[in-house]
Design a protein that fits this description.
YaeB-like fold, 3 helices, about 90 residues, RelE/ParE_toxin_dom_sf, five-stranded mixed beta sheet, about 35% strand, RelE/ParE_toxin, Plasmid stabilization protein, TA_system_RelE_toxin
């Protein structure tokens, strides 16, 4: 799959603690590109966002990655924030 990063995602990423940055980086640069379908992400605590088809979140401890699946081969990473803040800004 092709992975794209929104400017808001990059801005959020820079504000994260370094240990979370490493997890997010490995997920977005190693796991996402190897995916064949969204079902392959079930091991990463993936949940769809209710009321917004194509939008998902992945849980990483107290942080969430919000992304959009566009078509069969495009992932747009949109936000990465603490769980208390992510749903104020995503989708």
């Amino acid at each position: 799959m092709n992975v794209f990063f929104k400017p808001t995602f990059i801005k959020d990423f820079k504000k994260l603690p370094s240990d979370i940055q490493r997890e997010v980086h490995s997920l977005c640069t190693e796991a996402f590109p190897k995916l064949r379908s969204i079902r392959d992400l079930k091991n990463y605590n993936l949940k769809p966002i209710k009321g917004f088809p194509g939008y998902y979140r992945i849980r990483l401890g107290d942080y969430r990655i919000g992304f959009k699946l566009s078509g069969e081969s495009k992932i747009e990473c949109m936000r990465v924030k603490n769980r208390k803040d992510i749903y104020k800004h995503f989708p």
